[in-house]
């Protein structure tokens, strides 16, 4: 009987990390007779990934075979714009510590999660992988984007210098179970789920959303993202290399089409069952006008998103309701991010 590789999922309690754990568990269990996934995890309290010595000790102790790097300092447009030092410092430290320790401890295979914000603000749409480093970044999240670009380049550099197999995926905007519902530091979908839900309970006649409503975003359900992550890691190295380049080695993961913020606000209000009016607060930033990924690389390899936006929003609202009902004083809804 084959032995399962020991897989470290960094950030396993986050929205994406927890979905990756679910995907790894179901992918091994589906193959009849295969043992369950051998997954190793640490909470933030147990292991601060910005601490280089602690990360080294962890790799010495656990000796994982593979790593999914889904731990990061993450937030929406307001958080990125308000805490730029936290976003660049923590992300640079976490990924540098993990990638260097993984290499030192012989981990051959890793998946790094970046973000669509690595591309220039005015990149031609849809954005191909080759658009990286061709123009100026979006100012509201430039520090986070620079850290994510450094993460891609760390992986590529260890591959080129040391023959490692460190792959990178660039997710579009994500949402789903386990999201952060903070009223101002979250991304647009969880923020609006909460705002429409509270407005419905209060009988409020109107809900204001940030910006003009005209920017377009591409939204992917988190379990689709997790499936894409496991899919990319399962590709033979020769296939991955044939579809990427040593210095353009990342793969976009998108839904396939985008919507305006006004359209997604209407879709969220439907999922929540809010029947009042929607208004726009143009004093808040819009961010980039459009961020639509070209996912041809991944689609050609055989992966496609499965969950429609409205179905995903319905699932996400059910997740929010579970959290809401479990936490009468809203502690879990309002985490520090
Ligand atoms: N959400 C989105 O829309 C998008 C996300 N991504 C990327 O996907 C990845 C996962 O994001 P997502 O799941 O949404 O983020 P979450 O905020 O939900 O999860 C991040 C995880 O990282 C952990 N973490 C943060 N700082 C530390 C630290 N210093 N030490 C140890 N653990 C830490 C968190 O633990 P704790 O909560 O305990 O601090 C949490 O488990 C990230 O790389 C992100 O950049 C990319 C594009 C879009
Ligand atoms: C994933 C991605 O996330 C961030 O980029 P972003 O795409 O701008 O993400 P966002 O979800 O915060 O906003 C999307 C749009 O939605 C509008 N909007 C309306 N009303 C609310 C609202 O209530 N909250 C938020 N957050 N946005 C709102 C908002 O004004 C903007 O036009 C990056 O910083 C970057 O880190 C990154 O990679």
Written account of the structure:
It is a single chain. This protein has 337 residues and is an alpha/beta fold. It has a domain at 6-179 and 218-256 and 291-307: Rossmann fold, CATH 3.40.50. Helices cover 43% and strands 15% of the residues. It contains eleven helices and 13 strands. The chain has helices at residues 15-30, 52-62, 77-82, 84-104, 142-162, 188-202, 222-234, 237-242, 261-272, 296-301, 309-326, and strands at residues 6-10, 38-40, 66-69, 109-113, 165-171, 173-175, 206-210, 216-217, 219-221, 250-253, 259-260, 277-281, 290-291. The chain has a six-stranded parallel beta sheet, sandwiched between helices. It has a three-stranded mixed beta sheet with strand order 11-8-13. α6 (188-202) packs across α11 (309-326) and α9 crosses α11. The relative contact order is 0.14. The mean pLDDT is 95. Bound molecules: NADPH dihydro-nicotinamide-adenine-dinucleotide phosphate and the ligand C[C@H]1O[C@H](OP(=O)(O)OP(=O)(O)OC[C@H]2O[C@@H](n3cnc4c(=O)[nH]c(N)nc43)[C@H](O)[C@@H]2O)[C@@H](O)[C@@H](O)C1=O. Ligand F7E binds next to α3, α6 and β7. It is an enzyme of class 1 (oxidoreductase). Pathway: Nucleotide-sugar biosynthesis; GDP-L-fucose biosynthesis via de novo pathway; GDP-L-fucose from GDP-alpha-D-mannose: step 2/2. It comes from Rhodoferax lithotrophicus. Its EC number is 1.1.1.271. Keywords: Isomerase, Multifunctional enzyme, NADP, Oxidoreductase.
């Amino acid at each position: 009987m084959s032995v399962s590789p020991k897989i470290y999922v960094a950030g396993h309690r986050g929205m994406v990390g927890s979905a990756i754990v679910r995907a790894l568990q179901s992918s091994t269990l589906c193959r009849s007779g295969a043992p369950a996934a051998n997954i190793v995890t640490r909470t933030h309290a147990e292991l601060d990934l910005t601490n280089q010595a602690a990360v080294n000790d962890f790799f010495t102790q656990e000796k994982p075979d593979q790593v999914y790097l889904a731990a990061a300092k993450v937030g929406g447009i307001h958080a990125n714009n308000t805490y730029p030092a936290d976003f660049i410092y923590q992300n640079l430290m976490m990924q540098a510590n993990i990638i260097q320790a993984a290499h030192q401890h012989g981990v051959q295979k890793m998946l790094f999660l970046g973000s669509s914000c690595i591309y220039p603000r005015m990149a031609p749409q849809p954005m191909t992988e080759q658009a990286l480093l061709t123009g100026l970044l979006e100012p509201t999240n430039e520090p986070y984007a620079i850290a994510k670009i450094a993460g891609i380049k760390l992986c590529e550099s260890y591959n080129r210098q040391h023959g490692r197999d460190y792959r990178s995926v660039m997710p579009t905007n994500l949402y789903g179970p386990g999201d952060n519902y903070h009223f101002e530091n979250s991304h647009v979908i969880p923020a609006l789920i909460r705002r429409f839900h509270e407005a419905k309970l209060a009988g409020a006649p109107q809900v204001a959303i940030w910006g003009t409503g005209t920017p377009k975003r591409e939204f992917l359900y988190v379990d689709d993202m997790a499936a894409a992550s496991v899919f990319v890691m399962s590709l033979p190295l020769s296939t991955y290399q044939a579809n990427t380049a040593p210095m353009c080695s990342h793969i976009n993961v998108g839904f396939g089409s985008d919507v305006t913020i006004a359209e997604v606000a209407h879709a969220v209000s439907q999922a929540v069952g809010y029947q009042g009016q929607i208004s726009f607060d143009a004093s808040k930033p819009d961010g980039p006008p459009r961020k639509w990924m070209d996912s041809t690389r991944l689609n050609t390899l055989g992966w496609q998103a499965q969950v429609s936006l409205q179905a995903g929003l319905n699932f996400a609202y059910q997740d929010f309701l579970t959290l809401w009902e479990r936490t009468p004083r809203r502690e879990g809804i309002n985490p520090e991010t």
